[in-house]
Amino acid sequence: MSKKVHVQTNINGEAVDFLCEPRNSLLEVLRDELDLTGAKEGCNNGNCGACNVVMDGRLVNSCCVLGVEADGCEITTIEGIGAAANLHPLQQKFLEHAALQCGICTPGFIVSAKALLDSNPNPSEDEVRYWLAGNLCRCTGYDKIVRAVLDARNGA
Amino acid sequence: MHAFDYATPESVADAVVMLSDPGKNACVLAGGTDLIVQLRENRRRTDLVVDVKKIAELNALSCDAATGLTIGAAVPCYRIYGDGQIAAAYPGLMDAARLVGGTGIQGRASLGGNLCNASPAGDTIPPMIVLGGEAEIAGPDGTRKVAVEDFCTAPGRTVLADGEFLVSLHFPAPAPNSGAYYRRFIPRNEMDIAVVGVGASVVLSGDKSSFVSARIAVGAVAPTPLFVSAAGEALAGEPVSDETIQRAADIARDAARPISDMRGTAEYRKHLTSVLTRRVVQGAVQRAKE
Question: B189 contacts in A (CB within 8 Å)?
Answer without folding.
Answer: 129, 133
